[in-house]
Amino acid sequence: MKSITILIADDEAEIADLIELHLLKEGYNCIKVGDGHEAVAAIQKQPIDLAILDIMMPKLDGYEATRQIRAHYNLPIIFLSAKTTDLDKITGLVSGADDYVTKPFNPMELVARVNAQLRRSMQLNQPAAANTSVVVEAGGLLINPEQRTVVLYGEMIEITPKEFDILYLLASHPKKVFSAEQIFLQVWGEAYFEGNNTVMVHIRTLRKKLGEDVRKNKLIKTVWGVGYSFHG
What we know:
Blueprint: E1 5-9, H1 13-25, E2 29-33, H2 36-45, E3 50-54, H3 62-70, E4 77-81, H4 86-94, E5 99-102, H5 107-124, H6 127-131, E6 136-138, E7 141-144, E8 149-152, E9 155-156, H7 161-171, H8 180-188, H9 198-209, E10 220-223, E11 227-230
Parallel strand pairs: 1-2, 1-3, 3-4, 4-5
Antiparallel strand pairs: 6-7, 7-8, 8-9, 10-11
Domain Response regulatory: 5-118
Pfam family, one: Trans_reg_C
InterPro entries: CheY-like_superfamily, OmpR/PhoB-type_DNA-bd, Sig_transdc_resp-reg_receiver, WalR-like, WH-like_DNA-bd_sf
């Protein structure tokens, strides 16, 4: 069985050591670095299955490190930060993170979130699942699940892994209405909790990237009080 390696990037050694301690108990391999440049370099040098990145790191912060990582890699990324406002969380998710954990944190909750992200990532990368996926063409969009690419009227659209998963889920079931709870369960692989606006944030940024603000016929429609549906 393939061993799983997790990157921990935090300039506070005590926090990195605490996270490592709990992840080692789960049987994961850990690599610790102290800044964003080292985090990007570590991912370039060896296979990393998941990264936990502090946002406020020296030399290169978590936001920019994530942008550089996302340019070439699709591994799950969890932000760890003392920034706790909704705007901070939205900024983190929009920049490409898959999850956001605030400090101080419960180590066991962080481990649970790591496990959930790894399960989701492994499900997406199973060869059998890829073989059953089909390319979706609708409304000027070409969505390729094997290459995980989105092309809009001949132009490649850069979207995050979670945005892709949401778009493919909706587009592969045209006109079917999915609630935020259903989308969260399908894409994140875990139960939705009250007050969670993660799906709404991802839908909002996805619409912006697809030019929904200037399109007459919207691709992703909101069914008020129910959820979202795709109309190509």
